[in-house]
Design a protein that fits this description.
2 copies of one chain form a homodimer. With 498 residues, chain A is an alpha/beta fold. Chain A contains 20 helices and 10 strands.
């Protein structure tokens, strides 16, 4: 795997001096086109062995290119706000928007590799991390990103030589730390682990580019030319439409029996019982969320449902039991300009709360496989891949001890009509009923089909859907409160790290 | 000051039950109008003595109103990311956008009061904090915000009674902490300090509303009605245009002598000397920013100048000396949708870096008193108040040990013409010259006038302008590097807290 990067690649000064000026000009032009068209972001990961010139290469790139459109992130120790969220949050918050270049010194590979080399994790853990990284990259590429993964390599002998050279020069001496020498001692282990990482994660859409790091001129030119070539090609391709997936979209159940039909929408709760139950479960929720154990948890509750199914009312019954400082409601509307310049999951990642807090999404990331699918706001390919992307996203949340609770509120078509008409009558509820609601209603069957597919494909053991019979609002509210309490209790009982 | 809030205000249950439903409906309607019009944000501060029902009131508001459009922030201990920035950063990051309500439990008054009560600060420090708070609020109000400041009051005797009552009830016992009783012991001191705070910061545009906190029904209704009344009035007023300031805008200097004319634009540096100097100061900057002392500093360098004055080139000479992980360049373009929903300084606050880092603004918050003034993008009132708002903003940065370095790059009108023409010729520089540049050029005198006013009004001892003679690019680059190094060195010599 590293053979070609141990050949002693070298570029003489004359060649270098001749090649750099046109390369710089071409890079600048590519950057300008990239920024002007703003069709895709460029994500550059830089990894490799100590002393192989990772930082120097990145500095060189910044010198060559227009530093206003490229941003470098040194992913060192995470901050406390970052530790409070899933590991990937810190990368999501720094993702470059379309038209920009983001360079990550240190990436989602860094800690998995270091942990494995230091023996803090097992091979199986590493494999899992790599699998996740691969899936993340596939998603980013599918969302339009250009990913370039550079690995700066040195043979063991060359690493020693480089570190000694750096140490000898008073100008670079400060760069060599004790840690570098410690890492050097682990070279063989590091070599094995990183080889395995390259092997597993060099995919067709985001292959590793291994660069011999000893000769600065060779290294710089190689990285510069690779970036230029890749960006230029993607810009030229950007006009062409990508191929659609050939898999046919799922058919509706052919015997008309589907999961939503199995719900007994006639379920009710008497008003008196409702008051008792409401007090009981709100009280329980209040106690749970105020318990010291809760400080270590995070709750993300998510509401989807038919129009007028009563999401708002159900949410208010939850927040009524919470401390206002503790929760945040994110009503999902059309994405903003800044959100449109990012992968579609970005606008949900940005709202992931810190520990000890509750975030309630009023509509959610499932918009992609519901309204966007039915209304044709995204391509078939886009929504068909969204199922697994969403499963990956939720798996990351759950792995970080976030309780993910997902509610689908179902009402019958007749009940919806009754509520629409009622809303049109009542003054301050009139705003709740729009042209769009009537339009959606016409596509009832298509939405129903989309909901069934969604439940089939995203109701997982770690983040199951709770289907809520909502023809009776109070019945729905109690079921929701109960479910929420149960899931929080279950999470509290689980030990950390299990 | 607190007399009216010690009268034993009380609302009986019957009145309460009659008044709440219409109040809730009216609040909901006001919220909907607020969200639909999205003309201004509502900022609610809730302070007061322990046990006076601050948290309960906020929870009640959330219960009454649509929780999707109101967000509560418990401003407890700051995170490490917040500690790394000026105190106000954490409030800026949570400011509600237009059309939304943001509730702050704990505000910019909390720490100044607590610090004074605990004797950690002097009266003069408190006065300074209050002065800053007042100026901040004036700015927010001028930017369109509606600010409501509630102070929940209890007499000493009532505070004791409330705390005891809360302790007796098993359902509320957890709310009373040791700290509450400690604060109770300091009641008198607290009383004196907070009285002085009310007195100094009850301004016409954002007066304190003192609410007796003993009776929950009285407290809730008072706060609810006050909010309703204020929001409703502002919505109804929103159609009307505010009065313009009557002060006339500054006249250009009547004898045509002005600060820019005093610059000797003929200053040059020979190419050979430039290389020597460049290496010298880039080396110096590299050493300074890599010194351990730098970890405790932050640098914000800001570039303004005539079109084609060479900002980009000067910035590249700085970044060439820095580590790419350490800096960030923020090119200021038109504000995004999310930025337009906030006070104009918000989009700069969001880029304030953590310690040990350098942020370079390519154009800046001075846009308001330059292009926005000259092109009429904002009203005269807006740009005239911007001078002091900007001075306040920079004072906050400097107080937090941020080195603020401001450059104005001046070229002559002839030199600009030469560069425009040259740019039109060179392929990859063509993008740099736009219709807008030619249009701006026609307003040369007006811009010059605006620049002179800007320098006169915002070149302060803590954040002085450096005027750079930029007809010779290399001369400008060296002057900029030198200045930057000098200001960083000066900041390093200053002791913390001095």
């Amino acid at each position: 795997m590293f053979e070609s990067a141990e050949l002693g690649h070298k570029i003489d000064k004359e060649t270098y001096d001749k090649e750099v000026p046109p390369l710089r000009e071409a890079l600048l032009e590519a950057q300008i086109d990239l920024a002007k068209l703003a069709k895709f972001p460029v994500i550059i990961l830089v990894g490799g062995v100590d002393g192989a010139g990772r930082g120097e290469t990145v500095n060189l790139l910044n010198e060559w290119m227009d530093p206003r459109f490229i941003q470098t992130h040194g992913m060192g120790e995470p901050s406390d706000e970052e530790l409070d969220r899933p590991m990937m949050w810190r990368f999501w918050r720094e993702l470059p928007p379309k038209g920009r270049i983001g360079v990550f010194l240190g990436s989602w590979y860094t800690w998995p590799i270091l942990n494995r080399v230091a023996g803090r994790t097992k091979m199986a853990d590493l494999d899992q991390s790599l699998e996740r990284a691969k899936r993340l990259e596939t998603m980013l590429v599918d969302e339009g990103a250009l990913i370039l993964k550079f690995w700066m390599h040195l043979s063991k002998e060359k690493q020693e030589k480089r570190l000694k050279l750096l140490e000898k020069d008073p100008k670079t001496r400060w760069r060599v730390t004790k840690r570098d020498w410690e890492h050097y001692k682990m070279y063989d282990k590091f070599h094995v682990v990183s080889e395995s990482v390259m092997r597993h994660t060099s995919t067709a859409e985001a292959p590793w580019i291994i660069v011999e790091g000893f000769d600065a001129r060779y290294r710089g030119l190689t990285v510069g030319k690779t970036i230029l070539d890749a960006v230029r090609k993607r810009i030229d391709e950007a006009g062409k439409k990508g191929a659609e997936v050939s898999a046919p979209p799922p058919l509706p159940s052919i015997d008309k029996l589907h999961i939503l039909k199995t719900l007994d929408l006639g379920q009710k709760i008497a008003k008196k019982d409702f008051q008792t139950e409401l007090e009981k479960y709100q009280g329980k929720l209040a106690l749970l969320t105020r318990s010291p154990k809760f400080r270590d948890l995070t709750v993300i509750a998510m509401f989807e449902g038919n129009d007028a199914a009563g999401k708002g009312g159900a949410i208010r019954r939850i927040t009524g039991a919470l401390d206002a400082r503790q929760y945040n409601i994110v009503p999902i509307a059309a994405p903003t300009e800044e959100e449109r310049a990012q992968p579609y999951l970005w606008r949900f990642w940005r709202h992931i709360p810190r520990r000890g807090r509750v975030t309630i999404f009023d509509r959610s990331w499932y918009g992609r496989v519901l309204v966007e699918r039915v209304e044709g706001y995204c391509s078939k390919t886009d929504w068909m891949r969204a199922y697994s992307e969403i499963n990956d996203f939720e798996a990351q949340l759950v792995r970080h001890r976030i309780v993910v609770v997902k509610f689908w509120l179902t009402i019958s078509k007749d009940e919806q009509m009754r509520r629409f008409k009622e809303r049109e009558k009542i003054g301050f509820k009139r705003f709740k009923i729009t042209e769009e609601d009537w339009r959606n209603r016409k596509k009832w069957d298509e939405y129903e089909h989309a909901v069934c597919d969604m439940v089939d494909r995203t109701s997982t053991e770690i983040a199951p859907w709770t289907l809520v019979e909502a023809n009776d609002k109070n019945f729905a509210r109690i079921k929701i409160l109960k479910t929420l309490c149960r899931q929080i209790e279950a999470a509290m009982k689980k030990k950390k790290g299990s």
